[in-house]
Specification:
This is Antitoxin. It is a single chain. The protein is mainly alpha-helical and 77 residues long. It has a domain at 1-46. Helix content is 35%, strand content 0%. Helix 1 crosses helix 2 (27-40). The radius of gyration is 22 Å and the shape is elongated. The two termini are 43 Å apart.
Amino acid sequence: MAQLSLYVDDSTMEDLRRDAAREGKTLSKYAAGVLRGRKEHNGWPPGFFNLYGACDDDTFVVPPEIPWELDAPRKTL
């Protein structure tokens, strides 16, 4: 099994230890789970996409399309 060394400040380490203890896991298992969870959610927090359309506010509208002519010129690569 691969090993990973992390250098974190004291406050972050305390938070990690507390969270691992709260879940009844070793620090290694807790950290591995956190990292695995990031991969599974592609960086988005759980439930993020469930919020889409949840705001019932008529002022949220799709803005008008901006004409391409107003776009800044770009160098062709």
